[in-house]
Design brief:
Blueprint (H helix, E strand, L loop, with lengths): L1 H13 L4 H8 L3 H9 L6 H11 L3 H10 L17 H12 L7 E4 L5 E4 L1 H9 L13 H6 L11 H16 L3 H10 L18 E6 L5 E10 L6 H5 L1 E7 L2 H12 L1
Antiparallel strand pairs: 1-2, 1-5, 3-4, 4-5
Helix pairs in contact: 1-5, 2-4, 4-5, 7-12, 9-10
GO molecular function: DNA binding
Organism: Roseateles puraquae
Protein name: Transcriptional regulator
């Protein structure tokens, strides 16, 4: 009972909701909600699900709350290489290839581990003077970027891009404990970055990278995620496409394909 009480109260406070606001959203009386949070009443499964729906709880948070209350979890967490995830892998492959040879793309899980990538990303690594083989082993994008001497040093707008990436990861970590733990691990080694220039006007993340031959490659990033996932692994996945923003970058990637 105590574990469920803490879970509900913690989720509500994290979303800056008062008991009254949550009770109105969920159709549960404020008095009953107060009794649930203080342990004087036990929430039935339907009531608990209604409260979690009203808070927009993630699939992981839903499972944790249900388990803490003594109920079976509602959502599975299958490995991406599990046989039943074959249709998902095929869909991801199609997304990775959909934008053509000049568009690097990768699939990230909730902790920013690179779980899939297309040939365009390997070509980009080659242009940057990095070994494409680095994609063959476990690779965490946040570690790769924020490590001392990491990928961030290839960014023309290093301070600005690091601020943007870190802010996005922090927002996502509010509901992802494992990502929050990774950020806590990386935080002591961060540089005192300050935005070197104001954000651009595009509603996407735009950035520039220095190629090994001195050329500047320009991209903007677009993310795709599954809209109504019922699996925890699937809910955490996002496909990131790096679209070239000028002909120089597009031609460099196409030329790298023919080499």
């Amino acid at each position: 009972m105590r574990r469920m009480t803490a879970t509900l109260a913690t989720l509500r406070r994290a979303r800056r909701l008062s008991q009254l606001e949550l009770s109105l959203r969920a159709g549960v009386s404020q008095r009953h909600l107060s009794c649930i949070e203080t342990g004087r009443a036990r929430a039935g499964r339907e009531t608990l699900v209604a409260l979690l729906d009203a808070m927009g709880a993630t699939l992981t948070e839903r499972n944790q709350a249900l388990l803490a209350a003594g109920y079976a979890p509602a959502h599975a967490e299958r490995a991406l290489d599990a046989p039943e995830m074959a249709p998902v892998r095929r869909a991801l492959e199609q997304l990775l290839q959909a934008s053509g040879a000049a568009t690097p793309a990768l699939v990230l899980d909730g902790e920013y581990n690179v779980v899939m990538a297309n040939a365009g990303l390997s070509r980009l690594l080659g242009l940057l003077g990095l070994p494409p083989q680095m994609l063959q082993g476990p690779m965490n994008l946040l570690r790769a970027v924020f490590a001392p001497g990491g990928l961030r040093t290839l960014c023309v707008d290093e301070a600005w891009l690091c601020n943007e990436m870190w802010a996005r990861a922090v927002r996502e970590s509010e509901h992802l404990p494992r990502l929050r733990a990774l950020l806590d691990e990386l935080r002591p080694g961060l540089q005192p970055w300050f935005a070197a220039e104001p954000a651009g006007q595009l509603p996407v993340l735009a950035f520039r990278l220095r190629a090994a031959d001195g050329r500047v490659l320009s991209f903007f990033s677009a993310l795709t995620s599954f809209g109504t996932p019922l699996d925890i692994t699937l809910a955490s996945l996002k496909v990131e496409h790096l679209f070239p923003t000028d002909d120089l970058t597009r031609q460099a990637l196409l030329a790298a394909e023919s080499d």
